[in-house]
């Protein structure tokens, strides 16, 4: 018995890296998997269904069931086509993992509008476009699981990733809202903030394998176990709206917190705020 027996999963950006690891593991746990990948470079240029098809070939060779899809997540037509293919193959969608993404890193003052628009389009709009038909079907058919990929670049910030960080912060906001709206329909919506050695990260200094060999927690196959938990019945509706960070230092929940705060009955002034700053702001420690 697998954790995902008889489930149908759509995984975007599943031709390489984390998405491919998710797809292979989900299949091994009994799911039927639609492997979506446009097949471009990590900056979003080019297209080739070959990587998605190779993942499907691996799954089929291992005895699983999967189909490849090369539609563009960043368009409504592409999102609908992804959903339609899963429905044509299996007649249902139980799990959606929005994982597709690109990088166009640049400092804000040097950044271009074109790069800003493309990163926002692939990550944030792409999550919207694929989720829209899936969410509607789940809403009408008893629920399901949606996991959106966010990042510490959006939740905490990271130098040189204003476009990527803005997109990932937007995805986090969308995730929280969908969790609230989907709860009564049995739709569990969560966020994954992953850190793994993939082609998206391999040239970053802290992923240098000569100086800092990646521990098991940094590998896509390990992070995939966290995604499996989130998409399986091991996880329940009480976790909807929550975010797991899975990286080299293990697993943790990321969340927005409110400080003790200050609520003076007589109202407040700028001077009063300055005097109560230690009460309003969290400590830097």
Automatic annotation (TrEMBL):
Domain Ketoreductase: 7-203
The UniProt record lists the keyword Oxidoreductase: yes
Gene Ontology molecular-function annotations: oxidoreductase activity
Record key words, sorted: Oxidoreductase
Keyword Acetylation included in the entry's annotation: no
Gene3D superfamilies: NAD(P)-binding Rossmann-like Domain
SMART domains xrefs: PKS_KR
PANTHER family: DEHYDROGENASES, SHORT CHAIN (PTHR45024), SCP2 DOMAIN-CONTAINING PROTEIN (PTHR45024:SF2)
Name under which the protein is recorded: Short-chain dehydrogenase
């Amino acid at each position: 018995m697998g954790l995902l027996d008889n489930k149908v999963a759509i995984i975007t950006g599943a031709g390489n890296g984390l998405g491919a690891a998710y797809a292979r593991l989900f299949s091994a746990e009994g799911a039927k998997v639609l492997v979506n990948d446009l097949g471009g470079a990590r900056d979003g240029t080019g297209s080739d269904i070959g990587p998605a098809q190779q993942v499907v070939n691996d799954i089929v060779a291992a005895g699983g069931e999967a189909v490849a899809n090369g539609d563009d997540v960043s368009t409504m037509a592409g999102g609908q086509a992804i959903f339609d293919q899963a429905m044509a193959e299996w007649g249902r969608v139980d799990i959606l993992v929005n994982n597709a993404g690109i990088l166009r890193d640049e400092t804000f003052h040097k950044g271009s509008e074109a790069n800003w628009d493309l990163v926002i389009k692939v990550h944030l709009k792409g999550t919207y476009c694929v989720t829209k038909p899936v969410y509607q079907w789940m809403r009408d058919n008893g629920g399901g699981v949606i996991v959106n990929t966010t990042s510490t670049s959006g939740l905490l910030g990271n130098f040189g990733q204003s476009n990527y960080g803005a997109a990932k912060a937007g995805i986090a906001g969308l995730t929280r809202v969908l969790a609230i709206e989907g709860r009564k329909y049995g739709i569990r919506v969560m966020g994954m903030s992953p850190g793994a050695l993939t082609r998206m990260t391999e040239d970053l200094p802290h992923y240098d394998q000569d100086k800092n060999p990646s521990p098991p927690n940094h590998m896509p196959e390990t992070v995939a176990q966290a995604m499996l938990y989130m998409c399986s019945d091991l996880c329940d509706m009480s976790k909807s709206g929550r975010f797991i960070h899975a990286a080299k230092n293990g697993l943790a929940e990321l969340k927005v917190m409110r400080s003790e705060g200050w609520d003076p009955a007589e109202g407040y002034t700028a001077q009063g705020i300055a005097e109560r700053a230690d009460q309003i702001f969290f400590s830097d420690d």
